[in-house]
Amino acid sequence: MKNITELLKTKYPVIQGGMANIATAQLASAVSNAGGLGLIGAGGYDENWVRDEIRKMKKLTDKPFGVNIMLMSPHAPKIAQMVIEEGVKVVTTGAGSPGIYMDQWKANDMVVIPVVPSVALAKRMQRMGADAVVVEGTEAGGHIGEITSMALIPQVADAVNIPVIGAGGIADKRGVLAAFALGAKGIQIGTVLLATKECPIHLNYKERIVRAKDIDSIVTGRNTKAPVRVLKNQMAVKYIEMTKQGYDLLALEKLTLGSLRKAVFDGDMENGSIMAGQIAGLVKEIKTVKDVLSSLFDDVNAYKEQLEVM
Ligand code: TUI
Questions:
Q1: What is the pLDDT of residues 125-152, one digit of tens each?
Q2: Residue identifier of the C-alpha nearest atom 31 of ligand 1
Q3: Residue 224 confidence (pLDDT) above 80
Q4: Around 277, how many Cα atoms within 13 Å sit in the side-chain half-sphere?
Q5: Which atom of ligand 1 is least distant from the CA of 256?
């Protein structure tokens, strides 16, 4: 099995999460330049926005990068074509199955890495030709599945023979080692990158991550098709009330992406959706992206040697 740094041509076996409204060329180029795989997060944007970010990215880094396509977006089909035209080499996908695009991407020699929340979907993606899968536990921020990283990563690792990239709940060396111990060959990080100098979110959002405690996140819409983990605030409580009252799902999805923008751009910590994972409680300071990647990987093998089970 190819290792992740060979597959991605990166220094470190780490992918940045495709965070909607957040993963711009500014953040992604910082991650790529620091030795990880930076991703432009298409989120709910159209193909023109994503194309512009790809072109900015090409100016900001000569290192490998990719695009994350959020499959619930109505713009996903056009973005899926555009990434081929732009010569993007790596695509990750979230919030759905990329099955209908797979043959075309593979025909263009792209590396395709779907994010999956279950063993069944991971197996389906392997059958369709995925190069690796990001296995994301319910600890993660944003739109999530039901199963924890601890339980999901080893089950997927046993079920497929493509590399598994662990995600959800990783923010330090212990998390990296845990993911690898469970069978992952790489990791994806999101929440810990929110608290970086290069992350283009409002300072209030970064400071809220730094202040977050272990129990501060909550899942809105567990009973809908789009459960989303956010930090608890007025907005989250209102959303949960609305789902109880049986509001239309589409209206609720619009509300989440719209309110994510309020948090990201306006720094509105009461009416905005502050998407973040459960590991926010471990994030204690705003660092550079380079320092985050160093803190995850420098001397990680020496750290591993100190582990003693019995
Ligand atoms: O996609 C994510 N995280 C996201 S997307 C997002 S934008 C958004 N906002 C509000 C509502 C919906 C989306 C914010 N955070 N992570 C990857 C991920 N993919 N998590 C779960 C899944 C997933 C779920 C179901 C992947 C495939 C899937 O398949 C269902 C099917 O079609 O078989």
A1: 999 999 999 999 999 999 999 999 999 9
A2: 96
A3: no
A4: 27
A5: 10
